[in-house]
Amino acid sequence: MVGECKVGRMIDIQILERSDSEITLILKGVPLEYANAIRRAVLEEVPTMAIDYVVFYDNTSALSDEIISHRLSVLPLKSDTAIEHYREPEECRSSPSPSGCYTSLYLEAETAQQEELVVYSGDLKPQEDPEIVPVYRDIPIMKLGPQQRVVLEAWARLGRGREHIKWSPATVSVLTYIPTITISLDKCNMCKLCVENCPTKAIDIRNSEIQVNESKCILCRQCVKVCGAEAIELGWREDEYKLHVESSGALRPERVVLEAMIQVKKKLMNFYEEFERVLSSSGVKL
């Protein structure tokens, strides 16, 4: 995807890799400040569903209510439809009415005499919204011993990562420079020390020829440190970055990035409107 911003800078976004849980983008022509704002918004601003509080009706297991509640709260819940149908986190925290904020999941498990049972995330059953369920069904929550029982109701709502990490849709959000590797053939004596010390094998020597793969470079500078001939120079490209995002599963990775961009845009618009109001109230004409 290629676009042009209002300042005349060409923007090019390329999808380098994509899977059901990860996405890697190459951002060209994007200032570092904007790219980093998106990286942070991925972790802190994109809303997802998570269990906010738990009501216990019975618990005779070895785990206390608090430990079970904590384990339930960090289970990633599917949130693709929740963003569109549930109220904003800020509205739910300030509103006296919980209508449109919460949905509940029910869990009941019991063992007979001489029986043991592992309770998994898949045992959580939605009571109201069938779309809000655990992303992974095989996460162990607790183990019940003989003649133990647990009955609870878990209530989930939308939240943001800046409120608590359990609402963050991503487990990893990393912005890195795009490296450049320059090797002076006049200085290089083919000692192979750079090859032996490069942890990612970004530099190799084959058939007496130097092979460079800049996409593998992590700018650790080990090759520069061991090169006694000072034949290697490392740098990075201006306004070009790699953004790697790993989703928790609550949202598709591409939607996590898209929603992060929407949240950054909202913040900028709110700032613009507030600044415009302040200027207007001060009698400053635009």
Describe this structure in words.
With 286 residues, the chain is α+β, with helices and mostly antiparallel strands. It folds into two domains: 2-45 and 171-246, Gyrase A, domain 2; 48-167, RNA Polymerase Alpha Subunit, Chain A, domain 2 (Beta Complex). The chain has helices spanning 32-44, 65-73, 82-85, 89-94, 193-197, 222-226, 253-281, and strands spanning 2-4, 10-18, 22-28, 48-59, 103-110, 117-120, 125-126, 140-144, 149-159, 170-183, 203-206, 209-212, 232-247. The strands form four sheets. The chain has a five-stranded antiparallel sheet. The chain has a four-stranded antiparallel sheet with strand order 4-9-5-7. A two-stranded antiparallel ribbon has the order 6-8. Strand 2 and strand 3 (22-28) form a beta hairpin. The two termini are 35 Å apart.
- Tell me the strand percentage band: 25-35%
CA radius of gyration is 26 Å
**At the fourth CATH level, what is the homologous superfamily of the largest domain?**
RNA polymerase, RBP11-like subunit
Biggest sheet, spatial arrangement of strands? 1-2-3-13-10
CATH top-level class of the largest domain: Alpha Beta
Number of distinct helices: 7
The 3D shape can be described as flat
* Uncertain residue ranges: none
Give the quaternary arrangement of the chains: single chain
